[in-house]
Write a structure and sequence with these properties.
The complex is a heterodimer of chains A (about 100) and B (about 500).
Chain A: E1 16-21, H1 24-36, E2 41-45, E3 48-53, E4 56-60, H2 61-68, E5 81-85, E6 87-91, E7 95-99
Antiparallel strand pairs in A: 1-3, 1-5, 2-3, 4-7, 6-7
Helix pairs in contact in A: 1-2
Chain B: H1 7-14, H2 27-30, H3 55-78, H4 91-100, H5 102-118, H6 122-150, H7 159-165, H8 170-180, H9 184-213, H10 217-247, H11 251-280, H12 288-309, H13 319-325, H14 329-339, H15 353-362, H16 367-383, E1 407-408, E2 411-415, E3 418-422, E4 425-429, H17 432-440, H18 442-445, H19 451-456, H20 465-472, H21 486-494
Antiparallel strand pairs in B: 1-2, 3-4
The chains are: A alpha+beta (about 100), B mainly alpha (about 500).
Chain lengths: ~100, ~500
């Protein structure tokens, strides 16, 4: 589908991403995300950190644990996530993967 | 010691693993509601929930979320936090939230409990059960978070009564009543997908960021706490849609019709949010237009819809009009709320000069040409000691129940009226979208409880404004102009020691 067929709408490049609370835990997790996803773009509005990528966003437990300096269960991500864009393709003990189903 | 089960195995064991096939009653007696809408499901095991939430983890994380929230609420109250918000005007947005949105959370709690009982798939039932409990939690944390303000400010006292009776609150109320009186799959498409996935970011994300920017600690905290559940609800919504579309091709046109209807219903409901965002936040994070472009146009139209196109799903009816309206709706709705502010359970005001300049900057095509002149007129009246009110009752749209305030998509100078005749009666609409929705199900919408009609029918306390306001539960000070209101005077008094002029 070409999104440009919608009158009045200018299509922009597609992205996926997560919106997280702006707190200490999330800031460390964002550092881990950026390490694992070098193309990730981080932006902020009051109270909130937005991390976006163009293709996929992979949140890896091992890297998060290095940044937090303690064990981290991937389901603890539930405590800081505000919203996301994309489709959560995988959420298991080792990682959380967000991407679209089509390129 | 046996190895702990991984997330995937735990989820399978705690959902499908505890499911059973009824033997004392027939399957269709246990689950009587999932077929009449024409949706065909062949294999419930194809349902996947990426969050893989199970009961044990659910309680663990929800308890932690509540602990974090209530610690904040305690310190807010202990430290007189209400004095630190940007301005008392700000709280009027929060009054609308409490009166309009919180009761919807409770309705969502009730109906997701119904879904969790009556849908045959165990994975879907588990997701709906979690969501039902979430929604009850949201109702409670919203009431608890806003109650510290009720001690000091007007308009926070009777949200249940107001929700059922007040004219502008029939907009959210009728929206949700429409959803819970539909079949289970339409409800899931309406609330889980069209609202939670497509549109909820517009309500919760920039608005909660606005709360953070305006120093409203309780709202930011409950908002983000609720949003962490909301991410799971978004996933349920996307799963529902993908599952229905993948199960049978015959489901595609049914889902498309629901999507067309519920995008437009939800978008119209969001018109109130547009006004709250642009006009009621003294410190502004982003305009409605910017939020719409980011959270709807970029994230949904450019992001999600290409994924749905492979199933044959098109962007919903009315999208083009919504895009045109992003320049207009916040102004048109706020002006209406201002004009009928004598009958609202919150205060309204003329935006300050710098706020109007912000509007000019954010809405260069429309604000100065169409909307600033309204406020200039209102200012002239105010300068002479008066207050502009529209003394009369507005005509309401039969479907969204918003007063006829929206203008023609291509002409911001002309009010948009649509009508149709059904069984000899004429019905009125604000838009082509609402008219189309009526024509799909006229038997449903002829039953609309339209607040203005009900006043004229004598069902709302009496024929005079004071009688209707008393019946609404609106107390003196809740309504009308902000300048000189109880809240404004109290606020000035509490901060007078800080005055430098």
């Amino acid at each position: 589908m070409s999104a440009t067929t919608i009158a009045g709408h200018t299509a922009k490049e597609r992205f996926i991403g997560v919106d997280l609370q702006d707190n200490e835990e999330a800031r460390r997790i964002v550092r881990a995300i950026v390490r694992d996803n070098p193309e990730a773009k981080v932006s902020q509005i009051p109270g909130l950190i937005k991390v976006t990528c163009h293709h996929q966003l992979d949140i890896k437990r091992a890297t998060v644990e290095q940044e937090l300096h303690h064990e981290w269960d991937t389901q603890e991500f539930n405590l800081i996530i505000i919203s996301y864009v994309g489709d959560i393709q995988e959420w298991d003990d080792d990682h959380i993967l967000v991407k679209w189903n089509t390129d | 010691m046996a190895k702990k089960l991984g997330l995937r195995e735990t989820y399978a064991a705690m959902t499908r693993g505890v499911n059973w096939t009824p033997s004392y009653v027939k399957e269709e007696e246990a689950f009587p509601y999932h077929q009449f809408e024409g949706i065909k499901i062949h294999d419930w095991d194809k349902w996947e929930d990426p969050f893989r939430m199970t009961v044990d983890n659910y309680w663990k994380y929800q308890a932690e979320k509540d602990r974090r929230l209530y610690a904040v609420l305690d310190s807010f109250s202990q430290n007189q936090g209400h004095l630190n918000i940007s301005d008392a005007r700000y709280l009027n947005a929060i009054k609308i939230f409490l009166q309009g949105v919180t009761p919807l959370e409770y309705m969502a709690h009730r109906h997701f409990m119904f879904i969790s009982r009556y849908i045959p798939g165990p994975g879907t039932r588990m997701a709906a059960l979690c969501q039902s409990i979430d929604e009850l939690r949201h109702t409670q944390i919203e009431i608890h978070s806003m109650s510290p303000y009720n001690k000091y400010y007007s308009g926070f006292h009777s949200m249940r009564q107001m929700h059922d009776r007040v004219w502008y609150l029939s907009v959210p109320k009728s929206y949700f009543d429409d959803a819970v009186t539909a079949g289970p799959f339409e409800f899931l498409t309406a609330i889980s997908f069209s609202f939670e996935y497509l549109l909820t970011n517009l309500l919760f994300v920039p608005f909660m960021s606005g709360a953070a920017y305006n120093g409203d600690l309780p709202t930011t905290t409950f908002g983000f706490s609720a949003q962490s559940d909301e991410s799971r609800h978004m996933t349920l919504g996307l799963q529902v849609i993908k599952f229905l579309l993948e199960q049978d091709e015959a489901n595609v046109p049914i889902v498309q019709r629901w999507l067309d209807k519920w995008f437009w219903r939800g978008y119209r409901l969001n018109a109130l949010v547009a006004a709250m965002m642009d006009y009621m936040l003294p410190k502004k994070v982003m305009s409605w237009k910017e939020a719409f472009e980011l959270y709807f146009e970029q994230q949904m139209l450019d992001g999600l819809f290409p994924d749905l196109a492979r199933y044959g799903i098109k962007p919903p009816m009315g999208v083009e009009q919504a895009i045109k309206e992003k320049e207009k709706i916040s102004h048109e709705v706020y002006w209406t709320l201002y004009s009928f502010g004598f009958a609202a359970a919150f205060n309204t005001w003329i935006p300050t000069a710098s706020e109007q300049d912000w509007m000019t900057q954010k809405y260069p095509e429309t604000f100065d040409k169409y909307y600033r002149p309204h406020f200039e007129k209102a200012q002239k009246i105010a300068d002479q000691g008066g207050r502009f009110f529209m003394l009369g009752l507005p005509q309401l749209c039969q479907v969204c129940q918003i007063p006829m305030l929206f203008t023609e998509p291509d002409d911001p100078g002309k009010i948009c009226f649509r009508s149709t005749t059904y069984q000899g009666e004429k019905y009125h609409f604000c838009s082509d979208g609402c008219k189309q929705i009526f024509e799909w199900e006229p038997q449903k919408y002829v039953q609309s409880w339209l607040p203005v009609h009900e006043i004229y029918k004598g069902n709302c306390g009496g024929p005079t404004v004071p009688e209707v306001l008393a019946w609404y539960g609106i107390q003196p000070g809740d309504n009308g102009e902000y300048q000189g209101s109880v809240d404004q005077q109290n606020w000035a008094n509490w901060h007078k020691d800080l005055a430098t002029v």
